Amino acid sequence: MKFFIDTANLSEIQEAYDLGVLDGVTTNPSLMAKEGISGDEAVKAHYKAICNIVDDKVSAEVIATDFDGMIREGKELAKIDDKIVVKIPMIKEGVKAIKYFHSEGIRTNCTLVFSAGQALLAAKAGASYLSPFIGRLDDISFDGLELIQQIVHIYRTYDFQTEVLAASIRHTMHLIKCAEIGADVVTCPLKVITGLLNHPLTDKGLAQFLADHAKAAGK
Ligand code: E4P
């Protein structure tokens, strides 16, 4: 299972990478805007900086919603670095663009996925990754994890090569359940990755070990 971080913040990406468990990065236009990144050249430079930190894939999202625009932007993004995956929204023009990029050997991540039907379309079009949004489904009282389970089952049944990249992860239990279900990748905020470290019995046990050691050493 791969861990991606869902941010455009360079220090958070570096911190997750330094932990030794980070594979790649996903971004979206909102995350880029949060970092104050705008303008073609600044956007490209920022993606390059992200690619320079991590070893695996970096998803960079197109802004265009028409086929020609998505192809133009996607090609520009793909030129930045071999690690770039072009992120395309799950809309009709997006499905066509995914099919086009697949035939050109350019990797895609189909984003804003909320149903098994959309997942089927993306896989048929040849998406490299599929991003179902768990948290946003939970927000409207649909079970996001159930969708991941359904998609994993469908993809395995038909041996689709599209990787299930569980997105919109809000807490550690989302991540752990995705691991149980068999999602190929999870993308989450830094606090969810570092949250996996926490256990009160670890803290208590370590404090006891250190205290016993100090006592034995006569400190
Ligand atoms: C995934 O690629 C998206 O950028 C992201 O996971 C969305 O998460 P959010 O619902 O927390 O904004």
TrEMBL record:
It is found in: Cytoplasm. The active site is at K87 (schiff-base intermediate with substrate). Gene3D superfamilies: Aldolase class I. This is Probable transaldolase. Pathway: Carbohydrate degradation; pentose phosphate pathway; D-glyceraldehyde 3-phosphate and beta-D-fructose 6-phosphate from D-ribose 5-phosphate and D-xylulose 5-phosphate (non-oxidative stage): step 2/3. The keyword Membrane does not apply. The keyword Secreted does not apply.
